[in-house]
Specification:
By secondary structure, the protein is mainly α. It is built from 14 helices and 2 strands. The protein has a domain of 189 residues: Farnesyl Diphosphate Synthase (Orthogonal Bundle), CATH 1.10.600.
């Protein structure tokens, strides 16, 4: 990871002083770097880490960072990981251009090194993420969405990027298309479990304030615990929940009421069971690969995605 961090910083370099200043700021406030780790561990499982593995990890991280910068503009968010967002410090126009720059640097990194297999994997991921975001916007207008639509959204929005981490790691190690596809499916299942875990945070007590956040409800996001509860509620209770989300989603007491209904209606337990189902599906597929330190660490990382506290 130390070598990767140096190479990643190099991959963002620009002759424009403003870009250098902003990219330095972005690198300084890096997150958990789960995605590059999935690239390296997948490569290790599938034969070993090569120079192209570092490029694959950098491509993924450049793409992921670009989407986060753009997301903050779209969501009008002033904070990211406890720091000011790029748009908060340099305004929206610069933030959008920085996101475009990072995306182009990621794509050029593969083209300049003839990593066309990796380019295909990552480009597919960019397309799917965009489609997933638009699908969510389209469906968000209707608060009564089906579970199958929810899974379509998170498969494209979140899971596709982790799937591309695992697929590109395997491809960088010189694996066959069959193995690359198998690793991609493992990554997709992990990504779905990862997103369900994120959904559950909205209903879990925040240690700082001692109560659930309810942020998704305030933003009228349809997540799995809520979808399950609505599907299994009486018509009057369903109407009440939808009324609160539509008209009283900023009232803490009413949001708390929805959280209580979801808890009482087994929405949390159901979402947890689906999360574990996808995690175990990934673990089972992983069991077919030979034992190694990489595989052991990969399993630990998968467990972390569903057991993390934030």
């Amino acid at each position: 990871m130390k070598i990767f961090e140096r190479k990643f910083r190099e991959s963002m370099k620009s002759s424009v002083p403003l870009l250098e200043k902003i990219t330095y700021y972005i690198v300084k406030r890096k997150g958990k770097q789960i995605r590059p780790m999935f690239v390296f561990l997948s490569a290790g499982i599938c034969g070993g880490i090569h120079e192209s593995t570092y490029r694959a990890a950098s491509m993924i991280e450049l793409l992921h960072t670009a989407t986060l910068v753009h997301d903050d503009v779209v969501d009008d968010s002033n904070e990211r990981r406890g720091f000011f967002s790029v748009n908060a410090l340099w305004k929206n126009k610069i933030a959008v251009l920085v996101g475009d720059y990072l995306l182009s640097k990621g794509l050029l990194l593969s083209v300049d090194n003839s990593d066309f297999k990796l380019l295909k994997i990552v480009s597919d991921s960019v397309r799917e993420m965009s489609e997933g975001e638009l699908l969510q916007i389209e469906k968000a207008r209707r608060l009564d969405i089906q579970e199958s639509i929810y899974f379509d959204i998170i498969r494209q929005k979140t899971a596709t990027l982790i799937a591309s981490c695992c697929a590109s790691g395997a491809a960088s190690a010189g694996s066959s298309q069959e193995i690359v596809s198998k690793m991609k499916q493992i990554g997709e299942d992990i990504g779905i479990a990862f997103q369900i875990k994120d959904d559950l945070f909205d209903y879990e007590s925040n240690s700082a304030i001692g109560k659930p956040t309810g942020i998704d409800i305030k933003e009228r996001k349809m997540t799995l615990p809520l979808i399950y509860t609505l599907a299994n509620s009486s018509s009057s209770q369903k109407r009440n929940i939808i009324h609160i989300i539509k008209n009283h989603n900023t009232d803490p007491a009413r949001v708390e009421e929805v959280i209580s209904i979801v808890n009482a209606g087994n929405g949390i337990k159901y979402a947890e069971s689906k999360m574990i189902e996808y995690r175990e599906k990934a673990m089972f597929a992983l069991s077919e690969f030979p034992d190694s330190e990489y595989k052991k660490s990969f399993i630990d990382l998968v467990k972390y995605t569903t057991e993390r506290k934030k």
